[in-house]
Each structure stands twice: as C-alpha cells, then as structure tokens.
Prior knowledge:
The protein has 215 residues and is an all-alpha fold.
Amino acid sequence: MRALLLITLLVSLVSLKSHAQKDTTATVDLLGEMNKTAPEKTKLLPDKILFTQRIFWGEKGLMRNFNVFELTPEKRQKELKVRRTMLVAHQVMGMLTLGGMVAQGIVGAKLYSATGSNYQSLKDTHEGLAAAVNVGYFSTAALSLFAPPKMLNERKGYSSIKLHRGLAIIHLSAMIATNILAGSLGGNPSLRPYHRAAAYTAFGAFAASMIVIKF
C-alpha cells in the first residue's frame, strides 16, 4: 500500500505541469479558431456536460448571471483558466487524501487487535483521520464536479477520462458504504469485515483512478 502511494505521488507530481501546459496550448488553439468563425456559429460549450456543471455553467447556469462569466469567447477563455486551476487543485487534494487513506488504513488495522487504553487512543486517532479523509475526499470531488466544462465534446470510444469516471463511481459508492458501516459498528461489531472491505475498495478504486488519468 505504501509503495502504491509513493508511485502515485511521483507520477502525479511529474504530470501536473505537463497537463497544465497541454490545456493552455489547446485553449489558445481553440480560441484562435473561434476568432475565425462567425459569432452565430461559434460553439462555446460541449453537447454533454455534467449535471452539476450545467447548474452553474450551462447556457442558463447560475454563473451566467455574473458579467464576468457571460458566455462569450473572451470570457470563456478566462473560464477555462478557472477550470485548469480547479483541476490542478483536484489532483493535489486527491494525493493528500490518498495519503490520509493510507494512514487511516494503517491505524485501522492496528485497531482490530488493540485493547484497553491503547484501543481508545487508536480509535480516536482513526476517527480523526476519517474526518480529515472525508473532508479531503468530498472537497476533491467537488473541485471536479463543479469545475467549468471543457471546450470540446468527448471522443467516442475508450479514454482514460472515461475510465477515471467509472472508477469514481466505484470509490464514491464505497466511501458512502464505509461511512454508513462505520456508524453502525458500535451496535454491531460483526459488520467489521464489511467495513474493512468497503474501505479497501474505496482506497483501491481511488488510487487506480489517479493512476489511469496520467496515462
């Protein structure tokens, strides 16, 4: 588990800069094409965007009520810079959350065999880490879900982005299950194996989703 974390962190750090540079180049190219296109033919939003993005960033989204985010080519360029910043923060928060998951898993494993005062100390530490991981996890998710949409439609067929999203469904479901089972352990200790399985599933899918996005 520690080796997986180290590999993920190294790959993520190396790729952050290259992804930001690629996004910048793509944005400049796209906006250059827009300037050559008649305003009535300019397409500023992809055909399909997430429901959360549509609420804020759709043609009639909440953010369109602010002059700075009017749907124009020039302001869309600024919007894409906001998107890049949010997605870089999404990756950084994801790495920190993954580290918290590893620490929580190590403490949790010790908790199963602990007794007496040592048990209570480990339990408090585990719960503190759980709270931090939850904040980090759902903050990481929010940075992606509420980021402005990209410029182009997605390509058909396989892509690392689609696999990343598929894994996100798995680790989100597992995170919810982990929290529900954690709240039920006090009255039903027999749920421990299921809680542990849900936690490992969340960690594995989360780590895999971070790795596939780099390749």
